[in-house]
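Hi V.,

Quick status before I head out on leave. The structure for the redesign project is tokenized and pasted below; the design run finished overnight.
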């Protein structure tokens, strides 16, 4: 959607504010001796009439992440009236902070941040605020002293995702006649400190606390990747194979666990010994679910681009967006899935 006349006026106002903010920032940074000697660029390269949107992405660690990046790229196109900047932090917060500082010096109109972990953002977001650049947080949340350091957040209710998994597990065990069995759970944890990890772990731990016959027998760090999960689950299977459920905090971790189970000759999935629970509902996860290798895949919608654009257009029109915007999500079991449905989802 091409911005209207009023949005151009707001942007010019924004840029004047940005230039002033940057002038102060560059003088203070220069005087403090830790700034570069080159003149601070106070304007992006964006040709006139385009809104510059600069995205700091966590990395490319999972299929979910790739879909999230693609959603932003396909939303903020030149045809839609945007100049889009993108940096992949390779999972490192220090890379994101450097990227944000570069965006601030470029004087972009908007910063979009997917924070690898929740803490450590106050200082750089103060700099963005001083430069007059609104920050929209997506996916994971930030834990900052001053909530005004970000304008809005778009993402999922991760604890609810975990609770959904626990409610499904209770019903599934009931159907299987295992409601009173001792249930041993292996927990494959996502990136420690990520909001998605904090929420999904809380959902699991609350579910276990509510069932005295359920027990988490081990927590291993899968880091949201197939390779790391394969490594840590393979190691654990050398110690014990007395496992009823493997709770994987994303699809790539579920695929890593499945790879380790295959090598150990352990059956898993629909109506088998080991129940596999996963999160994200990306195509790779849903394919495994449809064939019965994953019992439950809880959706985590990565398509944040359109919601972020709604927020930016509200700001351009001088309106105040909601602080928090939750994406719609559901869950999938093998009986719910077809090739057509998976194809239709686009990620
Ligand atoms: C969830 C997101 C998580 C995904 C993983 O919103 O933060 O990070 O569940 C991704 O696949 O790596």
């Amino acid at each position: 959607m091409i911005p209207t006349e009023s949005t151009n006026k707001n942007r010019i106002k924004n840029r004047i504010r940005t230039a002033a903010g940057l002038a102060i920032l560059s003088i203070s940074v220069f005087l403090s001796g830790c700034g570069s000697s080159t003149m601070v660029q106070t304007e992006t390269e964006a040709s006139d009439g385009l809104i510059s949107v600069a995205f700091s992405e966590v990395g490319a660690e999972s299929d979910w992440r790739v879909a999230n990046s693609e959603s932003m790229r396909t939303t903020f196109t030149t045809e839609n009236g945007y100049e889009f900047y993108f940096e992949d932090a390779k999972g490192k917060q220090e890379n994101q902070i450097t990227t944000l500082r570069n965006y601030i010096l470029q004087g972009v109109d908007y910063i979009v941040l997917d924070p690898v972990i929740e803490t450590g953002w106050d200082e750089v977001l103060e700099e963005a605020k001083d430069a007059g650049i609104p920050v929209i947080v997506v996916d994971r949340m930030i834990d900052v002293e001053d909530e005004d350091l970000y304008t809005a957040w778009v993402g999922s209710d991760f604890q609810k995702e975990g609770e959904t998994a626990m409610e499904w597990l209770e019903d599934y065990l009931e159907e299987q006649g295992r409601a009173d069995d001792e249930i041993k759970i292996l927990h494959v944890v996502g990136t420690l400190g990520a909001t998605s990890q904090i929420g999904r772990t809380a959902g699991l731990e609350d579910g276990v606390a509510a069932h005295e016959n359920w027990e988490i027998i081990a927590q291993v760090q899968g880091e949201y990747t197939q390779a790391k999960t394969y490594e840590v689950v393979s190691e654990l299977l050398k110690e014990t194979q007395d496992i009823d459920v493997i709770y994987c905090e994303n699809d790539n971790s579920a695929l890593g666990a499945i790879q380790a189970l295959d090598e150990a000759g352990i059956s898993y999935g629909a109506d088998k010994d080991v129940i596999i629970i996963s999160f994200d509902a990306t195509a790779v996860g849903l394919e495994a679910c449809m064939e019965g290798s994953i019992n439950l895949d809880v959706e985590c919608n990565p398509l944040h681009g359109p919601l972020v654009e709604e927020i930016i257009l509200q700001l351009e029109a001088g309106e105040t967006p909601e602080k928090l915007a939750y994406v719609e999500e559901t869950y999938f079991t093998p009986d719910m899935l077809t090739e057509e449905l998976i194809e239709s989802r686009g990620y």
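Above is the designed sequence. The first strand starts at residue 51 and ends at 57.

G. will cover questions while I'm gone.

Best,
W.
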